[in-house]
Amino acid sequence: MKKLICAGLALLLSLGVFAGCEGHVSDEQEPIDETKTTLRVATFEGGVGDEWLQNAADRFEALYADVKFEPDTAPEKTGVQVTVTENRRFNGESMLDSLKNEPYDVFFTETVNYYDHVHRGNFADITDIVKDKTLEEFGEEGTILSKTDPTFADYLEVDDKYYGLPFYEGIYGIMYDKDVFLEEGLYFLHSGSLEGDKADTLQFAAPTDADDEAAVEALQATLSAGPDGKRGTYDDGLPATYAQFADLVEKIRLGTSVIPFSYGGSVREYPMRAMMTFWADAEGFDQMRLNFELEGKATDLVSRINGDGTVQTYEKEISSADAYELRKQAGQYYALHFLRDIVLGDAGNYEVNGNTHLQAQSNFIKGNLDPNKFDVYAMHFDGSWWENEAAAAFETTEQENGPSAARENRNFGFMPIPKPTADKVGTGVTLLSQANSLAFIRATTEQMELAKLFLQFLHTDKELSAFTACTSMTRPYTYEIEEEDEAKMSEYAKSLYAIRTDAKVIHPYSKNSVFMQNQGYFAMDRWSWETNISGKRFSNPFTSFLDNKNLSAADYFNGLYTYYENNWSFT
Amino acid sequence: MKQAISSAGRSAAVKKRWKPDRDLLFYILLLAFPLLQFCVFYIGVNFNSFLLSFQTYNSETASFVWSFGDNFARIWRELSSSTMFGDMLKNSLIVWLFSTLFGTVGAVFFSYYIVKKYPGKNFFKLILFLPSVLPGILLVLMFKTFGNEAIPAYAELLFGTEMDDLFIASDTRFIAIIIYSVWIGFGTQVLIYTGSMGQISPSVMEAAKLDGASPIRELWSVVIPEVIPAINTFLITGIAQIFINQANLWSFLGESASPQEQTLGYYMFWLVNKKEAGFQDYGYASAIGMCCTLIAIPLTFLVRWLLGKMEDK
C-alpha cells in the first residue's frame, strides 16, 4: 500500500513534465447562437480594451443579418455572430507556437514579431483584401493599402504578400489637465505678434474658472500661438519652445500648489519613451527615419555642445556600417536636455503618483477633483492610450463625484511637443509610434472568407472613425472623423486627433537588410539609449538622471556615441 | 518421456521469464517521469543552450544561423569597453554573500532556536516558512507594498521624517531586495537544519548540559558539527547560484532595473524575456551562460575540496 501511495505521489509530482504544454481552451463568455455562422475574434486585454470591437461586431452582425455564409455546409444558418474575447494571453509573443491551434479566427493584438509568425505559417495570406479588392462593398473606392501608412505597409509586405494589418498607434508623451492649466493660469498670453510668441518668456494668463464657458472662450482668443506658430489652433497658449516650457514648470512649482509632473513607479520607461517623441519632433521626419533606414545623409550631428546648451552640428553620409554616428543626432541631445534640466531639474518637479501605471492614471485623474484631499498634478507621463486604459478609474471617480467627473466631461489633453529652439517653431510636428501592434487572421481558420470580410469592414473610414471616437486613440491609416463620432469624443481624444492630424507619424520599421535581420536590436529602446559614461553603463536616461544627480544631459549624450561605436558589429 | 520433461521444463522457463518483476516495475515507474523530465529540461535545454551560444538569430528569415565567434566577441566588446559585467558580477556576489553566507548563519541560529523550543518558536517558524508555502509573486507584491507604502508611512508617523518609497529610491532599492533575498532563503535551509538537528541524540545534548555547556557552546561544539554536511551542501550548490540568481529583480522592478543594480542572472533573463525581445539575444545569453559555467565548474570543485578539508579537520 505504501508503495502504491509513493508511486501515486511520484506520478503526481512528475506531471510537472507537462507544465510547458499549453491547452487551447476557449475563454469566450458569450453563448453561441447555433442559427448563425460564428466568427471568433480575440483581442489583447490592455489599453485599447474591447468595447470598440464589441460595437463594431454589433454593426457587422446587423449589416449581414440576412446573409448565409455557409450555404453548402450549413444552409440552415443565416447571419453572423461575432464573439469578442479579451485576454492578456493574446499577445504576439506568447502565441508564437500556439496560434495555429487557437479557436479564434481574427486577432487584434500587440508585441507581435511579424516575421517570426509569418515564417511559422501562423498568419493567413490577406493580400487580396489589402491590395487587390477595393472597399466597394462598404461604399468606398480605394483599397485598405491605399490608406495604410506607407512605411508600415512596406514592412508588412513579404514576397509581394501581406499577412497582417497595422492595429493602433502608441505614442508616448506628456498628458496635461486642461482644467488645472485654466484654473492656475498656466497658459501663455499672445505677445502681440507671432514672432514675439517665440520669446523665451511670455506673460501667463490669469486664472480662469474652467466651468465658465464664456470666460474660457474669451481667454482662448488671447493666447499665444504655441509650437505650430499659428493662432486659433489646438496648441494655443501652450509652450512653443523648451525655454517657455521651463518657464511654465517654474511657474507651476513656485506659483501654485500643483505638482508639475507625475509618473507610475513601475513604468519608469514611459518618460524615456516620451523623450523619443521629443527626439523625433526635434529631428523631423526624414532625419528620424534614418534611425531605421540606416542609409542616407545625416544633417545635424553634434560636433560640440556649447556652454549655453546650444549645439554645433555637421553633416555626414551614413550607411549601416557606421550608423552608430546617428547617436550624435542633435534631436537626441535636445530630448535629454529637456528631460534632465526641465522635467527633473534640481528642485524636484516630479512625483511618483502610484506604483503601477493604472494607479498613477487614477491619481492623475482624481487629483483636481478634490485638491483638499489629493495631490494635484499638472502633467503626467503616459502613452496615447492612457485615457481608454483608465476607463475603470473614470467610472470610479464618476460614481464618487457625479456626472461632471465622467470621462466625456473631463478636460485632459495630449501636450503638443515644444521645439528646442525658437527658429524651429512652426516647422511641423513629427510623432513616433512605439506600438508594434497588428491585426491578422489565423492561417488555419475555417471561416477565412468571413474573417476577411470582417477585417475589410473594420478598415472602412467609418469604422476607423468609430474606433477613435470610442478609444480616444488613432490608427495608422488616412481617415477623417465623422461628425457624429466627433460629438462623442472626449476633450482628450479631440486633442490627440488634432495633433495627430497635424503630424507626420514615424513607425519604427524599414526594409534595410541590416534592420530586417536584426529587428530585436533595432527595437527602439535598445538602439537609442544605451550609454557608456567613463566605463559605466546606463540604459534609461530617466532613471539614470533620477539616481545620479550629478549626471548631465551632455554626459549621457556623449556616452551614447562611445557605447554604440564600441559595440557596433554591423556592416 | 524425456521429450515430455524437456517440453515441460521449457514451458516452465518461459513462464519464469515472463513473470513480471514487481520491484523492477515499481522502480521503473518511479523513475521514468523524473528521468524524462531530467532529459528534457536539463540535458535537452542545456545542450540547446550550448548550440545556441554559437548561433545568432536572423529576424528576417526567422531562423538561427551559425556564427561561431559573434556572441563571444560581443561579450568581449562589453568586457573591454565598460564595467557592466563587473558591476553585475559584484551585485551577484553581494546577493550571494548575504543570501548564502549570512543567510546560512542566520538559518542555523533560527533552526537551533526552534529546535530548543525557545519562546516564540512558532512565530519564527511561520515567518521563516512562509516564503516556502506562498507563491513567489505574492510575496514580492506583499513585500513591495510593505516597502513602498507601510515603511514610509511608519517613518512619517513615528519619526516625522519624509521617506521615499523603498523600491523607488535608488539608495534603498537594492538593499531592500537583498533583505528580501535573505528572508526567502531561510525557508528551505531552516527546514533542513531543524531536521538534522532533530536527529542529534538527546543523550549527547544532555551530556553537554551536564558538562555545563552554555547554549552557544552547545551550538558550536555539538550541534554545528552534526549539521555541517547539510551546511556544506548549501554552500556548494550556492556557488552556481552566484551566476543564475536574479535576486527577484524581475519580480520587483520588471524590465527597468538599471545596469548598476542588475545581477548576471537578471541580465540573462532580461535578454530573453524583455518585451519584444524575440529571439535576437538567445545566442548571446547562451554564450554568457557558457562563460559563467566555465567559471562556476572549477569554483564549485574548489569550494567542495576546501569544505571537505575543513570537514575532515
Overview of the molecule:
The complex is a heterodimer of chains A (571) and B (313). Chain A has 571 residues and is α/β, with parallel strands linked by helices. Chain A folds into 2 domains: 34-170 and 435-489, D-Maltodextrin-Binding Protein, domain 2, CATH 3.40.190; 171-432 and 504-571, Periplasmic binding protein-like II (D-Maltodextrin-Binding Protein, domain 2), CATH 3.40.190. Helix content of chain A is 37%, strand content 15%. Chain B has a domain at 83-277: MetI-like (MetI-like fold, Orthogonal Bundle). Helices cover 78% and strands 3% of the residues of chain B. A two-stranded antiparallel sheet of chain B has the order 1-2. The mean pLDDT of chain B is 87.
Please supply descriptive tags for the structure shown above:
heterodimer; A: 571 residues; alpha/beta; D-Maltodextrin-Binding Protein, domain 2; 2 domains; 5-stranded mixed β-sheet; 37% helix; B: mainly alpha; MetI-like fold; two-stranded antiparallel ribbon; 12 helices; globular
Short synopsis of the structure:
The complex is a heterodimer of chains A (571) and B (313). With 571 residues, chain A is of the alpha/beta class.
CATH superfamily of one domain in chain B: MetI-like
Strand order in the largest sheet of chain A:
2-1-3-15-6
Number of domains of chain A: 2
What global shape of chain B is seen? globular
The rounded distance between the terminal residues' Cα atoms of chain A is 69 Å
Taking all Cα atoms into account, the compactness measure Rg of chain A is 26 Å
CATH fold call of the largest domain in chain A = D-Maltodextrin-Binding Protein, domain 2
Uncertain stretches of chain A = 20-25
CATH architecture of the largest domain in chain A: 3-Layer(aba) Sandwich
> Regions of chain B with pLDDT < 50 over 5+ consecutive residues?
none
